[in-house]
């Protein structure tokens, strides 16, 4: 099978699913209801899509969405990386049937080679509906903040993932998702790649965070997740303020504080990038120097350069600047 996601096979089961009520024993029901107080799901009765790999986190997402009274469709993507990976779809299908959710199976072919994890993630994202929720937890949020910090991210990166309908269980701990699946009698898929030290996230999870906990003598994941929420709110405020600035107007850029000017320029430049990557700190510095007449023009990644003309910042195709 090639990597063409436009013709992914789909298997739809249980068009009118009914939950096996026996799965919701008293202890599981009480525990799930306590977790729902920290979840962010839409109104009861809403159609809702969940991406479910079969691990404890995504199974807990599925169970909590059903418990919240949503009409849930469960999507499983088989990357075909591991031998017998198709059996994982069978497990997820059984869990969906037990809980009373519709089921859709998708498969993609990820070829061996460098950046396997990133390519698999990209194919999975392309295969899933764009509004499918994922089972990222508070622990994933903490790891994401640390990873972004190691990569030199700004406020966007330190904001982590937004708590919304697409990430509804970001305030739930990983141990809580495992406990819920145990109480429900579900059999999670255990992905061996989650322990592979070749992947940065795994080293952050198994080495860096435990070391931070030891040094701080407290649960650092909670602090990092709380920081992400605070930074996210402040970041959103800056975005709103920057949105009112005409980024290609030199006069407007120079009359506001530089932090807002760079924020406006970043949004403008990101819109010019076909891949929508945010510009680097160095790129923003160079564009500011053009606005301030400290240089005539500057080259930026992505095949463009920026120069100043009649009070405006103008973009053109790159050529060598001397």
Written overview of the protein:
The chain is of the alpha/beta class and 322 residues long. The protein contains 12 helices and 7 strands. The chain has helices at 26-36, 56-67, 86-99, 116-127, 138-150, 155-158, 174-184, 200-216, 220-243, 250-255, 258-272, 281-291; strands at 11-13, 47-51, 71-78, 102-107, 297-300, 304-309, 312-317. A 4-stranded mixed β-sheet has the order 1-4-3-2, covered by helices on one side. A 3-stranded antiparallel β-sheet has the order 5-6-7, covered by helices on one side. A hairpin with a 3-residue loop joins strand 5 and strand 6. The radius of gyration is 23 Å and the shape is elongated. Residues 1-12 have low confidence and may be disordered.
Output the keywords.
single chain, alpha/beta, Rossmann fold, Uridine Diphospho-n-acetylenolpyruvylglucosamine Reductase, domain 3, four-stranded mixed sheet, three-stranded antiparallel sheet, 12 helices, 47% helix, elongated
Order of helices and strands: EHEHEHEHHHHHHHHHEEE
The best one-word shape is elongated
CATH topology of the largest domain: Rossmann fold
Order of strands in the sheet with most strands: 1-4-3-2
Largest sheet composition = 4 strands, mixed
The tally of beta strands, per DSSP, is 7
User: Would you identify the CATH architecture of the largest domain?
Assistant: 3-Layer(aba) Sandwich
The helix fraction, in percent, is 40-55%
Distance between the termini: 49 Å
Helix/strand/pairing class, anyone? alpha/beta
Any idea of the CATH class of the largest domain?
Answer: Alpha Beta
What's the total helix number?
Answer: 12
Beta-strand content bin: 5-15%
The stretches of 5 or more residues where confidence is low (pLDDT under 50) are 1-12
Mean pLDDT: 87
What number of structural domains do the residues give? 3
- CATH-assigned homologous superfamily of the largest domain: HUPs
């Amino acid at each position: 099978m090639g990597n063409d996601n436009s013709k992914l096979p789909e298997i739809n089961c249980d068009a009118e699913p009914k939950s096996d009520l026996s799965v919701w024993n008293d202890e599981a029901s009480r525990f799930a209801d306590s977790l729902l107080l920290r979840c962010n799901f839409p109104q009861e009765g809403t159609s809702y899509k969940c991406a479910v790999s079969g691990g404890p986190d995504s199974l807990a997402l599925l169970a909590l969405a059903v418990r919240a009274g949503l009409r849930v469709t469960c999507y499983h993507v088989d990357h075909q990386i591991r031998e017998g990976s198709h059996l994982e779809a069978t497990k997820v299908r059984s869990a969906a049937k037990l809980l009373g959710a519709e089921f859709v199976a998708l498969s993609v072919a990820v070829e061996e080679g460098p950046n396997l994890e990133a390519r698999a993630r990209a194919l999975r994202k392309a295969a899933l509906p764009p509004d499918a929720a994922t089972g990222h937890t508070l622990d994933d949020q903490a790891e994401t903040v640390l990873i972004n910090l190691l990569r030199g991210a700004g406020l966007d990166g330190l904001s982590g993932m937004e708590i919304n309908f697409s990430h509804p269980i970001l305030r739930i701990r990983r141990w809580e998702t495992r406990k819920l699946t145990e109480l429900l009698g579900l059999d999670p898929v255990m992905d061996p790649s989650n322990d592979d030290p070749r992947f940065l996230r795994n080293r952050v999870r198994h080495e860096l965070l435990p070391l931070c906990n030891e040094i701080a003598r407290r649960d650092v994941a909670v602090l990092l997740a709380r920081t992400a929420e605070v930074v996210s709110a402040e970041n959103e405020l800056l975005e709103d303020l920057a949105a009112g600035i005409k980024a290609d107007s030199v006069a407007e850029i120079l009359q506001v504080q530089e932090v807002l000017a760079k924020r406006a320029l970043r949004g403008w430049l990101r819109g010019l990038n076909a891949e929508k990557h945010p510009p680097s700190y160095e790129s923003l510095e160079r564009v500011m120097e053009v606005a301030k007449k400290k240089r005539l023009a500057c080259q930026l990644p992505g095949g463009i350069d920026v120069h100043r003309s009649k009070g405006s910042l103008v973009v053109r195709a790159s050529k060598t600047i001397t």
